[in-house]
Design a protein that fits this description.
This protein is α+β, with helices and mostly antiparallel strands and about 575 residues long. The chain has 4 domains: about 5-155, GAF domain (Beta-Lactamase, 2-Layer Sandwich), CATH 3.30.450.40; about 175-275, 2-Layer Sandwich (Beta-Lactamase); about 285-395, PAS domain (Beta-Lactamase, 2-Layer Sandwich); about 410-575, 2-Layer Sandwich (Alpha-Beta Plaits), CATH 3.30.70. The strands form 5 sheets. It has a 6-stranded antiparallel sheet with strand order 3-2-1-6-5-4. It has a 5-stranded antiparallel sheet with strand order 8-7-11-10-9. The longest helix is centred in the N-terminal third of the chain and has 40 residues, at about 135-175. It is flat and about 105 Å long.
């Protein structure tokens, strides 16, 4: 089986292509391949766990065969195009046990996803030996890419349907009325809350909905304004069964590819709230009341000047409402990201649709916090303004930063791990190749008889010893140097900007002396030594592995010399 075969199979099943009926799109591709390459047989197949299943076959009737008998297996293992210009009789056996095929030529291209997973092959077969020229191979590879495009399209359509279903569920759960209409006014979607009040209007235009003339005129005016790109919001009143009802109505355009393809509407019954808030007459005041009820930071700004903030925004920033209203928005941005954020904020002020980005701020108490900001253009006090909503994502950012840190640091000692060490050595190599003066050295350190200590005193003492050794190694280095734990009882040190080998020898001597001093751990006096291999950068080093290899090699020379010492790499050691 291939490495990560289980993951590959999971990716294959994600496309839901296996055991599906024939489709014209795939049949057309095999037909084109067969005709353009002038071969009698072509197929699109997908490699399952124990079988190869054929989605489309040209020139042959075949649905599936055992994977072990599959001609596609070679393509899967090589992860590249395979061409066998002359197949000897019996060399590969029969395709699916059919002795009439007598293959003499085969070519297969892997069906590889953008993530590198190989799902199957696009293959051609001939009964006579032949070769494919570069143009023909390119055609075969381009058709294979088209097969993957078709699969991705199917997957995207399925996800779109699932997304639509989730949207429908969400709309049905809204505690207020919601509807969608196309540009002609025909109702495309309406939740049950809206149906209960107005009846089922799906497929109807407003004029056929049975609304009163006054209410119909109000709705049509709002719809027409929204079709020009305006977000229309305001109160709508109507009388029903002797009672007066007030709705807060929002009608907004739906944008797709910079074009308005429809409108959506929200009707929130605010009758009871209006009765309680008789003093609130303007929509701005109602908005402020709603904003104070949500646990999301909200602000309105004209240019950079803050005009309104809710209590949640005040709590996030640490500034009082009065303090925020007296400052510009730039003031709360973190200094190291202020220029970039200012550019984004100003660029999005007049955007036709909402913009979203992450922003780092500095609170009144000097703490940095991350916000997920969404901005949109509105009108405030008769002037263009920006409405911003902010979610505090500081905790999420910390988790992300911790995950990145954990990926590059040893969990026991807290020092860099092999991945980060190799990355730094790689940077040092690139710098050294650009500048002849950028000399650096690598020390490979292996603790002597650590296993004996671990087995005798226990893993707890062994772990404490590794932590203590990491601390002593740090103390022996300059701030620009790096010490890393490669694994087990192996450490490595990168010394940048050294003058010559004497700098690394000096540090090696210092390390041996400091490690020779006893460790007092959990009531035990522990002594240990180390063997160190030292190598300096040479122009023929091209990768971190090259330096680690030679440093590791010379470290074993140090062990052979009696341990507790260092040795410097000499290319002659490779021959010996």
């Amino acid at each position: 089986m291939l490495q990560n075969e289980q993951e590959r199979l999971e990716v294959l099943r994600r496309y839901e292509i296996l055991d599906t009926p024939p489709e014209a799109a795939f049949d057309r591709m095999t037909r084109i391949v067969a005709r353009q390459l002038m071969v009698p047989i072509a197929w699109i197949s997908f490699v399952d766990q124990y079988r190869v299943w054929f989605k489309s076959v040209w020139g042959l009737e075949l649905s599936q065969i055992e994977r072990s008998k599959s001609w596609c297996q070679q393509v899967i293992f090589q992860a590249d195009t395979v061409m066998l210009p002359e197949i000897l009789p019996g060399e590969w056996g029969d395709l699916g046990g059919d002795p009439t095929i007598s293959p003499a030529f085969y070519a297969g291209v892997p069906l590889k996803t953008v993530d590198g997973w190989i799902l199957g092959t696009l293959s051609v077969l001939d009964r006579i030996p032949r070769q494919l020229n570069s143009d023909q191979l390119t055609l075969l590879e381009e058709i294979a890419a088209t097969v993957l495009d078709e699969l991705e399209l199917r997957l995207a359509l399925r996800k779109a349907r699932e997304s639509e279903a989730r949207l429908h569920t969400l709309v049905e759960q809204l505690p207020f009325e919601f509807w969608l209409r196309d540009v002609s006014g025909k109702c495309l979607m309406q939740n049950s809350t809206s149906i209960e009040r107005w009846g089922n209007q799906i497929g109807q235009r407003p004029e056929a909905s049975g609304l009163s003339p006054d209410l119909l005129a109000t709705w049509q005016t709002s719809n027409q304004r929204a079709l020009t790109g305006e977000v229309v919001q305001g109160e709508v009143q109507y009388h029903h069964q002797g009672r007066s009802h007030t709705f807060f109505n929002i009608v907004a355009p739906i944008w797709e590819a910079a074009q308005i393809t429809g409108i959506l509407g929200v009707n929130i019954d605010i009758t009871e709230r209006k009765r309680v808030e008789e003093a609130l007459q303007e929509s701005e005041a109602k908005f402020r009341t709603l904003a104070e009820m949500v646990p999301v930071g909200i602000l309105i700004a004209t240019g950079a000047r803050i005009r309104y903030v809710n209590s949640a925004m005040s709590a996030i920033t640490g500034y009082s409402r009065e303090e925020l209203l007296a400052m510009t928005f730039w003031y709360v941005m973190a200094p190291d990201s202020r220029d970039l954020m200012r550019e984004q904020w100003l660029a999005n002020q007049n955007a036709a649709f909402p913009s979203r980005y992450e922003m780092k701020i500095l609170t009144k108490h000097g703490l940095q916090r991350w916000l997920d900001i969404t901005t949109s253009s509105i009108e405030f006090a008769g002037h263009p303004a920006t409405l911003g909503t902010a979610f505090d994502i500081t905790d999420r950012k910390r988790v992300e930063e911790q995950l990145v840190y954990d990926a590059y640091h040893d969990p026991l000692t807290g020092i860099p791990n092999r991945a980060l060490f190799q990355d730094r050595v790689g940077q040092a190599i690139r710098q050294a190749k650009r500048s002849k003066e950028s000399l650096f050295g690598v020390l490979f350190i292996d603790l002597d008889h650590f296993k004996t200590i671990n087995d005798t005193l226990g893993h707890l003492v062994g772990d404490q010893l590794l932590i203590a050794i990491a601390q002593r190694l740090r103390a022996c280095l300059r701030p620009t140097d790096m010490v890393a734990r490669l694994g087990g009882d192996e450490f490595a040190i990168l010394m940048e900007k050294v003058k010559d080998i004497e700098d690394t020898i000096y540090v090696s001597d210092r390390i041996l002396k400091t490690l020779a001093e006893p460790f007092y751990l959990d009531g035990h006096e522990v002594t240990i030594s180390a063997s160190i291999g030292v190598t300096l950068y040479r122009p023929d080093y091209n990768s971190p592995e090259d330096l680690l290899r030679d440093a590791d090699l010379v470290m074993y020379h140090a062990k052979a010399a009696g341990r507790g010492c260092y040795k410097v790499f000499d290319p002659a050691m490779i021959a010996s």
